[in-house]
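quick q for whoever's on today - can somebody do inverse folding on this one?? i tried earlier but teh output was garbage lol. tokens:
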């Protein structure tokens, strides 16, 4: 009989601990709960800063005349309905230079995101197009824009130019996932 009562008492104590911890959380002043604790002199690994090379070009002249639209008015016309990977590569390289973005960076991202396939879908069809623009993180980009070579390239190069290159996981995880990463 004694062991049964002892088991009940221990069980009650064990299962009520989260309740006591929850109640104790609200009895201390908020500053005491959130106060950071001092640690020994420990250095945490720091990610190196992102290097984005911006080339000088006609972009400054164009920007002074008028704002370049985020979505080009006329789509890219390449021979045939399905452009080859080489044609897409040449177009991305040319546009990267015009936008003042390192062409090697732009080509790296497109090659590793879609293998130069403008109709590519990934992440369970949440990412789409040449640059694999995510529906989840960028709902403002329609499917028509994401699958259009010119529109998606214009949008993506503007993102890279504004310092948002880490939005592409192939760049963000380049050093850890790819042996041929040129951005070490």
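ok took a stab at it. sequence:
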């Amino acid at each position: 009989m004694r062991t049964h009562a002892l088991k009940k008492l221990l069980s009650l104590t064990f299962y009520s601990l989260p309740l006591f911890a929850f109640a104790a959380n609200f009895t201390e002043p908020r500053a005491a709960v959130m106060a950071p604790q001092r640690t020994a002199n420990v250095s945490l690994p720091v990610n190196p800063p992102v290097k984005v090379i911006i080339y000088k070009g006609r972009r400054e002249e164009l920007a002074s005349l008028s704002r370049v639209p985020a979505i080009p008015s006329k789509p890219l016309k390449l021979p045939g309905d399905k452009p080859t990977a080489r044609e897409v590569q040449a177009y991305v390289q040319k546009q990267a230079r015009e936008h003042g973005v390192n062409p090697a960076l732009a080509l790296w991202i497109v090659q590793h995101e879609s293998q130069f396939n403008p109709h590519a879908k990934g992440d369970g069809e949440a990412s789409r197009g040449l640059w694999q623009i995510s529906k989840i993180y960028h709902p403002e980009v329609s499917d028509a824009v994401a699958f259009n070579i010119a529109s998606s390239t214009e949008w993506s190069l503007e993102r890279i130019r504004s310092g948002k290159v880490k939005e592409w996981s192939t760049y963000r995880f380049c050093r850890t996932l790819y042996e041929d990463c040129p951005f070490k």
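fwiw DSSP finds nine helices and three strands in the chain. also The chain has two domains: 2-34, 59-177. so keep that in mind when u check it
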